[in-house]
Amino acid sequence: MENKKTLVLTNHLEEIEKLPVLLEQVCSQWKLPASVEASLNLVLEEAVVNVIQYAYPEGVEGTLSIDVEWKEQAGVLQFTLSDAGRPFDPTAVPDADTSLSVEGRPIGGLGIFLIRQMMDCVEYRYYNNHNMLVMQKRITPEV
After folding, report:
1. Strand 4-10 to strand 121-127: parallel, antiparallel, or no bridges (unpaired)?
2. Which residues have CB under 8 Å from 106's CB, separation 6+?
3. How far from 70 is each of 88, 111, 123, CA to CA, in Å?
4. pLDDT-derived band of residue 105, with 50, 70 and 90 as boundaries?
5. What is the pTM of this model?
């Protein structure tokens, strides 16, 4: 059974529609619960929207590659997002202050906060002129 899938998107918001299709394939193939699929869709959407909206200057065409790998022995699902946009380390952004009211909270940062909360490991590196965001989730497949 194949343990890796790749999806390449352009930096257009319409591309978000391809994420649920990818996750449905991944979760079906590796027998992952629907609850995992829903939470992973939210995490991936947050990360991909950030790249689409901020990685490339306005009017510049760019791509985003998403590699999904299932590490069966470790029970880990790993997502690696790679883009050639502006360098940006989301792991260096301080956590959003969720104790503030919606009106008192600065704009931004909640997506990154959500990703950190829902994934077991989030790492960033800039390699070969590419941002690489690696997110891992430990999962117990349904039998």
Report:
1. unpaired
2. none
3. 26, 24, 17
4. very low
5. 0.85
Angle ∠(92,96,98) on CA atoms, nearest 5? 160
User: What's the alpha-carbon Rg for the chain, to the nearest Å?
Assistant: 15
Q: Under DSSP, is residue 24 helix (H, G, I), strand (E, B) or coil? A: helix
In this structure, what DSSP letter does residue 112 have?
Answer: H
The residue assigned the tokens 């430990």 is 138
Angle at 23 between CA 10 and CA 34, to 5 degrees: 150
H or E, element range at 135 = strand 130-138
Condensed to tens digits (0 to 9), the pLDDT of residues 44-63 reads 999 999 999 999 999 999 99
DSSP string, 33-86: -HHHHHHHHHHHHHHHHHHHHHTS-TT---EEEEEEEEEGGGTEEEEEEEE-SS
CB 19 within 8 A of CB 39: no
Express each pLDDT in 85-99 by its tens digit.
999 999 897 765 555
- Separation CA 61–CA 51 (nearest Å): 12
